[in-house]
Recover the amino acids of this structure.
């Protein structure tokens, strides 16, 4: 049960004054649902203004606050010209306040002639004159503006303004109660951190490193604690020891020898499975490193030991592909493998459910549907999760574990820096496939200007004439899924003009049947070109596809580019990756694309990505997509996570049930960050 003290924070946003149905969508877009979300909606940056007594004091380009008196209105000569308000300062210097669009009425109301107003905005030059375009604030009273010369700039969505957002956040802050201290007092003192409530207020008021760090630390601590509680609970759980006799694995006829890394990983897994305490292991291996066969061998161990195995894939496409691959590889063993997805209906569904219940199905492969209540296993011994979503792992592990003591192997193709491994997987044991199967050719990666699109299309035509296939990846416009789609559809249309039926389109909004059909045409070689949004990032394996074009490559993160590129270079033919870039590139983008050309080492790319994006920024950039955190930036994760981790460990060692005073505070923390699945694992929690 959530501590009562947190109730005000978990109240719906609709309880805030001024939040009506009109704001529902814009707020939802930002993930702002409850009071808690508002208080943690931290500014991206601050605008700093200087109060000046007269215009002579200000400089061009400076953000100022100044008292001005409007003296004349000037409507534009054409309806398109701005509406201008001529205003003078205390010395009689003139300045123009310019309003574009149809804002004349509003401007007149705000700036009545002859009445002094406090104006905040950026001082610019326009011809011979000084001008402020669309002042940020106009106020009859100076006090408010002078008291807040640093103004928070919040992430917004359409339909919201900074003023509105700031007011909502301030209102939400008044609902924040005092909370007990969950951090180790020594840490708080040493770092000079304010207490929680104070930290929140300060973080919204000004750049306040200590405040921001404290809030980030809280989140990191909550995460570490929750993952450790999962781990501790796991150790207490009695599972079944699975000892295989090797008869099924011996029957496998793999077309290749295992790499050293694969053999090591399998041995580690075998060791874990032989213990009664459920395995909690992460298999980390770059794209193409051969995780699938490790999964298969692990599943076979479970079957040899008389249990069943399940392989959970993030998408249907991938589930289907795993099914085909595993069934082919495992054919000589005679094990019964089934595919189960949410789409199975009627008789087919019934028969799979029966098979799982009576144990005639040894291994099931599917999407999350395999964990629905309706699915009952005779004896599920091992779950392998082909993890693509990078976070929420702890939670998912718990779901698959709950009470059953099932062994669990999570696989990830995302090479993440060690610091982030800790953040996302906490106390899991890790096996790394740090060696690619032999004979892989380097992928020839080139950066090409977008203007040369025509040449690229011709290169594609030549490529197809050799019988090989290709991918075309359209960029992801983060702001809008609809725009993404439009871009992909438009590109597909253009390429269809040239390649006709040979070009198929796949994107995230398609019906699964359509998506499968398109994938199928491509995988079988009927279609030569797969035009896609980033949905292909997850695990498609078509060795004959040896060319990849990525449009607006500068928009992607390095890790993501790496994942995408990993779709080619899977066969024996030489592969090429063309990174199309826009006209204007920032220094960082240039560096990133150069790195892609230079290396194919996923771990190195991940480290560099972290370096290029993360370090040094005062407020940091939150990267909610890549980490399980909303508050902590990459930089903060790197700096503070090791500390949070140690702090969490100490707390659990001293008070594993979280029953002491600090333990109780830590429970509050876990609920605050919705890591309460950790609490629920506590005995009697
Ligand atoms: P991952 O899932 O790690 O990205 P896969 O398991 O799909 O990689 O393997 C990529 C390709 O490498 C597959 O075609 C697979 O058959 C092949 N492969 C796996 N292990 C080896 C090996 N030891 N030697 C040669 N090829 C291998
Ligand atoms: Mg894979």
């Amino acid at each position: 049960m959530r501590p009562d003290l947190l109730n005000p924070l978990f109240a719906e946003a609709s309880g805030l004054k001024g939040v009506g149905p009109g704001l529902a969508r814009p707020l939802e877009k930002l993930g702002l649902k409850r009071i808690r979300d508002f208080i943690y909606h931290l500014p991206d940056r601050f605008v700093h203004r200087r109060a000046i007594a007269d215009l002579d004091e200000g400089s061009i380009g400076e953000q100022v606050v100044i008292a001005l008196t409007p003296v004349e209105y000037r409507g534009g000569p054409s309806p398109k010209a701005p509406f201008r308000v001529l205003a003078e300062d205390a010395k009689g210097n003139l300045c123009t306040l310019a309003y574009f669009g149809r804002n004349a009425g509003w401007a007149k109301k705000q700036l009545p002639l002859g009445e002094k107003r406090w104006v905040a905005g950026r001082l610019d030059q326009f011809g011979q004159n000084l001008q402020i375009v669309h002042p940020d604030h106009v106020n009859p009273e100076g006090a408010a503006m002078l008291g807040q010369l640093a103004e928070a700039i919040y992430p917004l969505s359409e339909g919201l303004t900074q003023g509105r957002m700031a007011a909502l956040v301030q209102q939400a802050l008044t609902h924040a109660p005092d909370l007990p201290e969950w951090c180790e007092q020594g840490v708080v003192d040493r770092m000079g951190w304010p207490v929680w409530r104070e930290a929140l207020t300060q973080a919204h008021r000004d750049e306040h490193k200590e405040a921001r760090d404290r809030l980030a630390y809280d989140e990191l601590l909550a995460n570490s604690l929750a993952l450790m509680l999962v781990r501790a609970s796991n150790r207490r759980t009695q599972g079944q020891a699975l000892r295989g006799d090797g008869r099924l694995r011996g029957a496998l006829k793999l077309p290749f020898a295992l790499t050293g890394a694969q053999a090591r990983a399998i041995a580690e897994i075998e060791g874990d499975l032989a213990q009664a305490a459920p395995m909690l292991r992460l298999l980390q291996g770059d794209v193409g490193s051969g995780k699938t066969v490790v999964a298969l061998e692990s599943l076979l161990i479970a079957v040899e030991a008389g249990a069943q195995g399940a392989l959970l894939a993030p998408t249907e496409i991938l589930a289907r592909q795993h099914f085909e691959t595993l069934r082919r590889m495992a054919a000589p063993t005679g094990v019964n493998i089934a595919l189960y997805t949410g789409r199975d209906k009627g008789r087919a569904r019934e028969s799979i459910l029966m098979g799982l219940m009576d144990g005639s199905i040894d291994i099931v492969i599917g999407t999350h549907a395999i964990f629905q209540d309706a699915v009952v296993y005779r004896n599920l011994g091992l779950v392998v999760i082909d993890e693509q979503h990078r976070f929420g792992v702890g939670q998912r592990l718990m779901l698959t574990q709950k009470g059953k003591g099932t062994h669990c192997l999570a696989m990830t193709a995302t090479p993440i820096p060690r610091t982030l491994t800790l953040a996302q997987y906490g106390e899991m044991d890790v096996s790394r496939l740090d060696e690619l199967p032999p004979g892989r050719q380097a992928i020839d990666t080139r950066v090409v200007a977008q203007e040369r699109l025509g040449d690229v299309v011709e290169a594609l035509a030549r490529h197809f004439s050799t019988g090989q296939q290709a991918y075309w990846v359209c960029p992801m416009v983060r702001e809008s899924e609809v725009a993404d789609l439009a871009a992909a559809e438009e590109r597909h249309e253009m390429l269809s003009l040239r390649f006709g039926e040979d070009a198929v389109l796949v994107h995230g909004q398609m019906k699964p049947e359509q998506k499968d059909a398109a994938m199928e045409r491509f995988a079988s070689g009927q279609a030569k070109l797969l035009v896609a949004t980033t949905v292909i990032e997850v695990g498609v394996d078509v060795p004959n596809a040896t060319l990849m074009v990525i449009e607006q490559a500068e928009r992607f993160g390095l890790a993501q580019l790496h994942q995408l590129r990993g779709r080619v270079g899977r066969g024996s033919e030489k592969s090429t990756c063309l990174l199309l870039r826009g006209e204007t590139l920032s220094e960082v983008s240039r560096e990133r694309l150069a790195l892609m050309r230079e290396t194919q080492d996923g771990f190195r790319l991940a480290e560099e990505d972290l370096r290029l994006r993360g370090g040094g920024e005062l407020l940091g950039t939150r990267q909610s997509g890549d980490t399980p955190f909303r508050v902590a930036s990459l930089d903060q994760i790197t700096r503070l996570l090791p500390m949070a981790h140690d702090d969490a460990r100490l707390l659990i060692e001293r008070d594993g049930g979280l029953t002491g005073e600090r333990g109780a505070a830590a429970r509050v923390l876990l609920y605050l960050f919705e890591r309460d699945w950790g609490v629920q694992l506590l005995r009697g929690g």
In short: Residues 615-625 have pLDDT under 50 and may be disordered.
